Amino acid sequence: MPVGINQPSGQIKLTNVSLVRMKKGKKRYEIACYKNKVLEWRSGVEKDLDNVLQIPNVFLSVSKGQAAPTQELAKSFGAKTSLNDIILEILNKGELQVGEKERHAQLERVHNEVIDIVAGKLVDPKTKRVYTTGMIDKALDQLSSQGATQQSEAKATPGSSDIPPVVNEGDNTEPKGKAKELPRWTGVVTTRSAKSQALDAMKALIAHQPIPVARARMRLRITCPTPILKQAVKSAPRSHSHDSGETADGEEKVHGTVKDRILSFVEEVEKQDVVGDEWEVVGFVEPGAFKALSEFIGGQTKGRGRAEVLDMAVVHEDD
């Protein structure tokens, strides 16, 4: 006889419910949550479990009021796993079941957030002006249509594979017989954060260029003690010898001056000046170069120099 919820005859119908399901072993388990609270819990906005769960129990079927027997839970999750830990595992890792309207609304929210992020970080490389969200939306729609077509063609081609070729980022080796696969964009999903999907969208737009795009540059203030500027730059430690130019006998090679190397990171210098015993330059740097620049300055100046972000994404706005 199945274990049920203690309730009067004439089953209580749960209203405003969201189900989270997880298959563990050969069984499927469910928990009953309040709508909108699951996503708030997973994002860290909601921290009180009582505000998330309608009933603090695990079910085989919420709609039938059929709770999961203790022995079944022990087989699936382990005998030493507490009910609370099982609930948390399902809540954090399970599949959220939502209605069609709610699913569509959730997808639209994530889609709009992705478009907003991308539109704020990409510019026309010639004018440095941002694109409207509508233009970014159309460009991504074009890429997703192309991606869907390519996947259909790949599946229809005998011997084809949807698995992208593996490229070792540590060297320049590419798969033999295949060109390096460009990033694809197939559309927004609700199972990943908008931020991570926006990064994928930017990579695909930059790679395929359905419209001319480039990353907006960061505006930095770089400071360095003047005595250090003319010092010769020495290569990185032995572990980085593949790009440092270390000689065969382990000695370090010299690569220009500290000032030369710092300026090599800067695409456009806005102004530079010497104030007292400190050199200062304000300029524009590609976001991808910021980490390397910061590490270089820190290493060469032993923490006395720094790179300060003035603007994360510099664009030209229309008046």
UniProtKB/TrEMBL annotation:
Major location category of this protein: cytoplasm
Chain positions covered by the region annotation Disordered: 143-183, 232-254
Residue ranges that the Swiss-Prot or TrEMBL entry lists as coiled coil: none
Domain Ribosome maturation protein SDO1/SBDS central, first and last residues per copy: 112-216
Cross-referenced Gene3D superfamilies: 3.30.70.240, Ribosome maturation protein SBDS, N-terminal domain, SBDS protein C-terminal domain, subdomain 1
Positions of transmembrane segments: none
UniProt KW keywords: Cytoplasm, Nucleus, Ribosome biogenesis
Protein name: Shwachman-Bodian-diamond syndrome protein
Source species of the chain: Lepidopterella palustris CBS 459.81
